[in-house]
Amino acid sequence: MSSALLFAGAGIGLLLIGAWALVLRAHLIRKVLAINVMGSGVFLVLVGAGAMGGVVDPVPQAMVITGIVVAISATALALALVLRIANATGKPALPEDRERDLMDEEGAR
Amino acid sequence: MTIESRRGEPGPWLRVGLGLLLAAVAGGVGLVLLADPVAPGLAGLVEGELERSGAENAVTAVLLNFRGYDTLLEIAVLTSALVGVWALGPAPRIRETTPSPVLLGLNSVLIPLAPVICAYLLWAGKSHPGGAFQAGAVLAAAVVLYILTGRRPRPRLPDAPMRWSAVVGLAVFIGVAVAVMGTGRQFLEYPVDLAGMLILLVETAATLSIAVILAGMFIGGRPEDEP
Amino acid sequence: MNPGLWFDAVLVVVLLWLAWAALASRDLFRGIVLFIAFGLVLAMAWVRLGAPDVALAEAAIGAGLTGALLLATWGRLPGQDDGPPEGESPDEEAPDDD
Fold it and tell me: Which of A52, A70, A93, C33 lies 20 to 30 Å from A34, alpha-carbon distance?
């Protein structure tokens, strides 16, 4: 068991946690959080698997840097969409989730 | 039992199905990792070509030279995302508040420091950890800090300079990539003696664009014309 | 086992716990703050994996700017501090430009 394998395993765990929350939670911002967590998991698997050879492999690292920038681009666009949805329909939720408990305690007034 | 119960809460079948699917994915990836792949990876190849790439930092060499096409497309994605955010309408207004003294005090130190750190990261990216993306992000963070003080209820960057800065990174990158074709090379094939300079040129333009684009995405909408 | 491996094990546990807490918490604001913390701990993980460039990018972009974006959006939701009160659209007063 090497460090790199441990981190790659953590990446798999993050993928699972993120996918679980993405499907089962209703609040759109929380879904965006879940996608980001899944993305971080994928990056860990990439770099972790690359580091398992013992030598520092720069190619997966470059790919992950690209991935981080693309992730924030997608997140920014997604969050702008969430804001527009919330302002247009009153709730930051998909049409089929409108009746569910959004679990946003601070926002619940 | 159904996939959804009343009110749309996910039912038991959905959870079980999802759990099985995720277990399968985790098992699959885990098996591959545990089989201890002994693939040599590309580190050796990169090491061999490093002197001819124009950068001493292997990651910068990969990002800006060996896999420059990926970075070109990545900057295109960033620019498109900004256009997408702008397409959604005018920027949301921020309510005027008195900024906390902690924020103001920190800003007086951090905002002037940011361009220095940005320039260092950009310059050092050639041989040390750093690079255009990190530098651009630091600059964008300084703009965000300024916006958070709430001095302007409709935060915006000056219109024409902002639009030009947002596209200059992509434009310079494509320009350089096409210009080398004029000397009979392939798209994005830098001449070895000019590679370092070209990388620095592209990175500088990219840093400016990245900073402006990230700040623009934080503002969250199209800059409006002031009355 | 060398101390480096122990440290990495602790880091992994913290990482997984932060991700779980961020996504499972009842309070969305708390979830966003925990996500920012998750990003910073992930930056440490990148350093342990020998990827300092990735660590810089993760800290600045992944944790910092993404966190700022999330908090700004959360604050602008209807019913929150910066957003319109529930039921009102903020675009009613915005000028229409075509």
Answer: A52
Q: Kindly state whether C91 is in contact with chain B, defined as any CB-CB distance less than 8 angstroms.
A: yes
Query: Nearest chain A Cα to C86, which residue?
Result: A90
Q: How far is the CA of B103 from the CAs of A73, B1, B143, B149, C32, in angstroms?
A: 26, 53, 13, 7, 20
What's the CA gap between B132 and B205, in Å, rounded? Answer: 9
pLDDT, block means (10 residues), chain A with 109 residues:
89 95 92 96 93 86 96 96 90 85 65
Q: Chain C: nearest CA to B186, how far in angstroms? A: 29
Q: How distant is the Cα of C3 from the closest Cα of chain B, in angstroms?
A: 22
The pTM assigned to this predicted structure is 0.91
pLDDT tens digits, C59-84? 999 999 999 999 999 988 887 777 77
Neighbours of B43 (CB within 10 A): 18
Show the domains of chain A with their CATH numbers: 3-96 (1.10.287.3510)
CA distance C44 to C96: 47
